[in-house]
Amino acid sequence: QVQLVESGGGLVQPGGSLRLSCAASGIIFSIYRMGWYRQAPGKQRELVATITSGRSTNYADSVKGRFTISRDNTKNTVYLQMNSLKPEDTAVYYCNADPPGLMTAYWGQGTQVTVSS
């Protein structure tokens, strides 16, 4: 009964900020590598940011310096703080959970982020 539920998406103006949340259940959250991916219309899903169980982070070049991924293991939640948003950040953002030692991964339903004037 693995479930990942994203929230926090919406419409924001260029230069604005937004924080996404992903609440996980049905997994041993603290040992999972968590990540955020996004997919724009007509494009492939791409990695945005990841965070390991040891809180090591990795970011796509396009979001470095603007986005911050974090996790709260007491709440089984991973966050994506997005600052200085650009129109090209517009996409559906998906939460990902990567279990250690397995070839499978879990995905949330996605949340829409639209950056527009």
Notes on the protein architecture:
- The chain has strands at residues 3-7, 10-12, 18-25, 33-39, 46-51, 57-59, 67-72, 77-82, 91-98, 106-107, 111-115.
- The strands form two sheets. Strands 2, 4, 5, 6, 9, 10 and 11 form a seven-stranded mixed β-sheet that branches. Strands 1-3-8-7 form a four-stranded antiparallel β-sheet, with no helix packed on it.
- With 117 residues, the protein is an all-beta fold.
- The chain has no helices and eleven strands.
How big is the Rg? 14 Å
String of helices and strands: EEEEEEEEEEE
Distance between the termini: 40 Å
**Overall pLDDT metric:** 96
Number of helix segments? 0
The major β-sheet equals: 7 strands, mixed
Number of strands: 11
Q: Estimate the global geometry from the Cα principal axes.
A: globular
Strand fraction: over 45%
The class by helix and strand makeup works out as mainly beta
Q: List low-pLDDT spans.
A: none
Residue share in helices? under 10%
